[in-house]
Amino acid sequence: MRILVQKFGGTSVSSPEARERVIQHIVRERGDGYNIVVVVSAMGRKGDPYATDTLLGLVRGDGDHLPPRERDMLLGCGEIIASAVLCGMLNASGVPSVALTGGSAGIMTDEGFGSARIKRVNPDSIIAHLCRGTVVVVAGFQGISPHGDLTTLGRGGSDTTATALGAALGAEMVDIYTDVNGILTADPRIVTDAKPLPVVSYAEICNMARQGAKVIHPRAVEIAQQARIPVRVRSTFTEDKGTLVTDDLALASGRPVRDKPVTGIAHVSGISQIAVKAIEGRSDMQLQVFQTMARHHISVDFINVTPSGALYTVFDKDAEIADRLLREAGFAPVLVPGCAKISVIGGGMNGQPGVMARIVEALTEQGISIMQSADSNTTIWVLVRESDMVVALRALHAKFDLHI
Ligand code: ADP
Ligand code: ASP
Ligand code: MG
Q: Which residues lie at CB < 5 A from ion ligand 3?
């Protein structure tokens, strides 16, 4: 059975016209002989009636007062509505279809409301429908807990539904349809001349997604990589071929190869830098600092430990409490809120001299100071002031000729 999973994001199902485009993509691939499993996100973005953020806005404090279980019940409605609406439109167009919630599609998760992990997928129900020639429309971003409660998979989690179903069904391909022409060299909202990448490896896109490129959820890429399923990220609204995510060079043949040390640039804002100086006679400084953060579930990043102190970052939302906890423990931390982490990513930089020099050159030319840096063999990270972030992203993008 040749199975294709097609996932359509919020903007792709936001209006009747957009949904007509969705139906065209489904009909085309079905005509090519595929059995189709569709995964949908909630319709539209904040402000649209059934979008995830709009649903959250129904409760004071954007849902902060809801217990996690009930919050997931509310959030799950957006995708359920989208799946039923699309099913109705498909049937009206003469395409037999059925809509399933995540639970009825066999997606079983743990009890981690708000960011549940998929434990198992039982594809029997989907397969039974496909055998009858029916298009199966699954509500993305959700599953069912061992106690039968609806769980959600974390923001952006419909991508994860798509690749998890692809893996469970042995799909030939997973198509992620969105509002941009694929995975671009940087966020197009900031870098307007960002270019679509014809082919990327799982590792590169996973890295970009983890470092803030919102176009695909990193968990979705991990699942596709494990199952060795190729993923195409493409636009619902153009005929562009989009980006192929694969490690299989044979599959990528025919697509142009970009031979550059840097593949793309990603960013995360809303970060605070914390510097803690060692205190004379207290040898347990490092242990105290990081145990304190861990005890209070504060996630730390960009960690730099020397005998004279510790330098690291936390999210702005955790900065105040981190600062207070450190002071209570007898330290005198120096806090710099409002920073951004920029990641320069590329499988091709491994062993290539001069990449860091070009990063420093690009930022120095703009008068931007690097507050901290780190590197692996495929990524160089720099921390800058958030107020410098946009200029820094554009300068780095130009320095590495990513617009060409
Ligand atoms: P969907 O609702 O289709 O899942 P998302 O909003 O989750 O769409 O992701 C698509 C958006 O991701 C794009 O509109 C774009 O603004 C943003 N984005 C950020 N970084 C990148 C990147 N490197 N390539 C493409 N899009 C990116
Ligand atoms: N609707 C959910 C969100 O906005 C899931 C998704 O779009 O993938 O996070
Ligand atoms: Mg998304």
A: 9, 156
Is the per-residue pLDDT at 123 higher than 90? yes
pLDDT value at residue 23: 98
**Cβ(214) to ligand 1 under 6 A?**
yes
Mean pLDDT of 163-172: 98
The residue ranges of DSSP E strands in 287-390, in sequence order, are 301-306, 309-315, 334-345, 372-375, 379-385
Q: Where are the beta strands (DSSP E) in 118-188?
A: 118-121, 135-139, 142-144, 150-152, 173-178
Ligand nearest to the CA of 156: 2
Which letter does DSSP use for residue 348 in this model?
A: G
Q: Crossing angle, helix 218-227 and helix 202-210, to 10 degrees?
A: 160
| Confidence label for 62 from pLDDT (cuts 50, 70 and 90) | confident
Cα atoms in the 13 Å half-sphere on the side-chain side of 16 = 3
Per-residue tokens: 345: 């990513």
Residue type, 91: N
pTM score: 0.94
What is the distance, to the nearest Å, from the Cα of residue 372 to the centroid of all Cα atoms in its chain? 24
Q: So what's the pLDDT on residue 283?
A: 76
3-class secondary-structure state, position 361: helix
Mutate to test the pocket of ligand 2, among 52, 80, 138 (most ligand atoms within 8 A of CB): 52
